[in-house]
Write the structure tokens for this entry.
Amino acid sequence: SDKDTGLSLLKITNGGVKNRQGYSIGEIESAFKRETMNVSYGRFKGKSVTIWELIHSEYFSEEKRKELMEMYRWKEIDMKIIITRITTVIEQTESQESTVSSCVVLPTQSTLAYTAEETEAAFRERTLCFSIWYLIHSKLFTEEERRTLMEKYRRKEIDLESVIRTITSLIEQTQTLVDTSITFSGLRAEISLQELVESEIIDQKTLLELQEGKKTVHDVSEQASVKIYLKGSDSIAGILVESTNEKMSIYQAMKKHLLMPGTALILLEAQAATGFVIDPVKNVKLTVDEAVESCLVGKELHQKLLSAERAVTGYKDPYTGNVISLFQALKKDLIVKDHGIRLLEAQIATGGIIDPVHSHRLPVDVAYRRGMFDDQMNKVLSDAGDDTKGFFDPNTKENLTYLQLKQRCVKDPLTKLYFLLLRR
């Protein structure tokens, strides 16, 4: 207190004055030109644009621009808030929503200065795939939920990080929000979007893009990371006779005595167990019944190939009546071990284990969780011993795994089918 007046006075130290010093205009311009953000709306949609360019665009009046720069100059806001403010302004302008300004509140930040290193790290770290405004206006939120969240934020009952946690939690529960009208073509049946999300074949970003109409089922089905689980990669399709360059089906090669019946049967069983019997001349894939009906294979092989095809359509558990997978049938001794391992190895070599209930292939981790694979079987298949060398190379007379035999095949540049080269 003052000795003369008795009044209480606030003491300002030199350190306090120093800490209040802000960035220079040059420092702000340099920082804003280094930082970029992805824009989801308007004329910059789909582009990565610098903060400097955005605040000097038509979305910001001179007054708004000066206000934003002044707040940043004195460390009242950080880059996270700047990005949020810019995103909101752009969306407000494009959607002409009068409620935007009321939902964004900029909390007061500490006036202590960041170091140059901290500033650069913050600028480099913050990226946006979808804005919060976009997400709360998606199908993740009902109108009531959206208004409640915005009101809580407006009243400062929650901060931005709490909003992000709420959105993340809802995304993780999207199985209850998935559009059931969206389906994909599987090996034998349609697959729901929910099933592909639960199987970790489609991620949350793709899910949102599908539900918002930004991507089509065809677009997603053709993505390599999705296509491999929907269709797999091709099995060994046919025979290529080296001396004549003639292509033919495996059954035709057997009838011409170019392949031994046992070798031909095993290759055809692998086709059936991995999805379809292949006509390599016409480049057509058929079910076993269709292959027999079209004379692609003879009737004498019908029942044996139907048995192998159950690796795709499923086996019936005699105890429960449920449909079970190839691996589960092996565990229950419903099929001969050597035969089952041979078919399972062929599935893995062509894209993954098939879930017959849902009609698609599975990522390994998901197959483990669903009881369609385990460590013991993984060890058997990884060892590449006699148990898995169930396929015969007619050229070298070696017993190989399916993957090894496939690697010795020739891939047709037009059809992309794999042909076993016959050198005689």
